Amino acid sequence: MALTPRQKEVLDFLVIFVEDNGYSPSYEEIAHGLNLASLATVHKHISSLELRGYLKRGFNQSRSLDVSAEYVSQHRLNNKPPAPRQNYEVPLAGKIAAGTPVDATQQQETLSFSDFVGNESTFALQVRGESMIDDHIMHGDYVLVEKTDRVRDGEIVVALVDGSETTLKRFYRETDNVARLQPANASMEPIRVPLDSVFIQGRVLAVLRKYK
Question: Which of 18, 44, 78 lies at the terminal end of a domain, its last residue?
Answer without folding.
Answer: 78
